[in-house]
Amino acid sequence: MKKVIIATITIILGIYICIIFICADLYIDHNLRKYSVFYAHNMEHKAGTHPELAMALENMDVIYKPNKKNIRYRDDGGFIIYNTFSDSERVIIKYNIAEKKSRYIFYDITDKDYFFDEAFRLEYGYDSSTGLDEIDAKTVDQEVLYKDIYKNFGFIFEANVNRKPRINLQKQFNKKYYKRFN
User: Fold this and answer.
1) What pLDDT is attached to residue 39?
2) What DSSP assignment string belongs to 74-136?
3) Contact at 8 Å (CB) between 52 and 179?
4) Residue-range definition of the domain harbouring residue 115
5) Please, which residues bridge with residue 127 across strands?
6) Helix 170-177 and helix 2-34, axial crossing angle in degrees, nearest 10
């Protein structure tokens, strides 16, 4: 009889411990994603990378998305933000989750498409107004390009950069993403 009680208690304790580990793991993952913009902003990163934008686009399903006039969010098959100025003018920023590597795309008003790598560094672009001619990244004034992106989509970054988590997991975030942005 004692062996049955001890075995039952052991099994119940084992189940409780497994549940606690699963919940802790899920909380850590959710925390890292929900506060990713805050963590990315406070992480050391190489010049030319933009971890805040990358994290904001990657985690659109869990971060705070402010309701703004002329802004539309879409999350079917990737995360897309539309900023519409008029019926014919809008800028779009997109994160494609279907690819092996993270890829970000910015479509501007002048029919130019810019493609960024997983650290949000410019890789190349296309000029749709001249028949999809490829744009060399070295010829683009990247400072002006990033200012344009922040001007049109910086509100996402601003809305999330000061949202501090209850439990700060900056060390875990750095461990996970340091190599990507350096």
Assistant:
1) 92
2) E-SSSEEEEEESSSS-EEEEEEESSSSS-EEEEE-TTSEEEEE-TTS-EEEEEEGGGTSEEEE
3) no
4) 31-180
5) 112, 133
6) 70
Closest CA to 62 of 96, 91, 93, 27: 27
Alpha carbon distance 120, 149 (integer Å) = 11
**Is residue 17 domain-resident?**
no
C-alpha of 41 from chain center: 12
With cut-offs at 50, 70 and 90, classify the pLDDT of residue 38: very high
Rounded CA Rg of the chain:
21
Q: Is residue 133 part of a domain?
A: yes
pLDDT mean over 137-148: 83
3-state secondary structure (DSSP) of residue 2: helix
Question: pLDDT per residue over 41-98, tens digit each?
Answer: 898 888 888 888 888 888 888 888 888 888 888 887 778 888 887 666 778 888 877 6
pLDDT at residue 134 is higher than 80: no
Q: Is 71 helix (H, G, I), strand (E, B) or coil?
A: strand
Tell me, what amino acid is at 88?
Answer: S
In a domain, 8, yes or no: no
